[in-house]
Structures are given as structure tokens and as C-alpha cells.
Recover the amino acids of this structure.
């Protein structure tokens, strides 16, 4: 794991832990809403930026776009749904 990935994952862990603690100890609904919103954004942005990453992403993508595999998959779905 390179330093960039390590930094991103630990910053997500830190921010999610920090804001989860803040939300659980908030005194008003507005503080709770702001904390939940920041928590959601801090989890959403890294998930969006992960597109195309991973050791097996290319193999899953090729299976998704493979017509022969898709035809077999849909035949199985049709068989089990009838």
C-alpha cells in the first residue's frame, strides 16, 4: 500500500470517528445535522474517487461488458425466475 492510499484511508477513519463522536454528543439538532452531513461527505468523496482502483477492477469490468458472460447470466436468471 503506497503512502497516498494509506493517508487517505487513515484520514477517512479519523474524520468519520471524530464526527461520529461529535454527532453522538451533540446538544442541538442543527449540530447533529451538520455533523452527520460532514460525516456523509467525508465518506462519500473517497468512495467517489476510488472509481477504477483495485487489483480486480479490470477483470470485473471485462466480465460486465462481456456479451457471452452476460447472455449466460441472463439465461440463468430467466431459468430460475420461471
Amino acid at each position: 500500500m503506497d503512502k497516498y492510499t494509506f493517508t487517505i484511508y487513515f484520514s477517512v477513519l479519523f474524520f468519520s470517528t471524530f464526527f461520529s463522536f461529535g454527532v453522538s454528543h451533540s446538544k442541538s439538532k442543527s449540530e447533529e445535522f451538520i455533523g452527520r452531513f460532514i460525516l456523509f461527505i467525508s465518506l462519500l468523496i473517497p468512495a467517489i474517487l476510488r472509481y477504477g482502483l483495485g487489483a480486480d477492477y479490470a477483470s470485473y469490468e471485462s466480465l460486465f461488458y462481456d456479451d457471452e458472460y452476460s447472455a449466460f447470466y441472463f439465461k440463468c436468471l430467466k431459468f430460475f425466475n420461471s
In short: The radius of gyration is 20 Å. The chain has a mean pLDDT of 78.
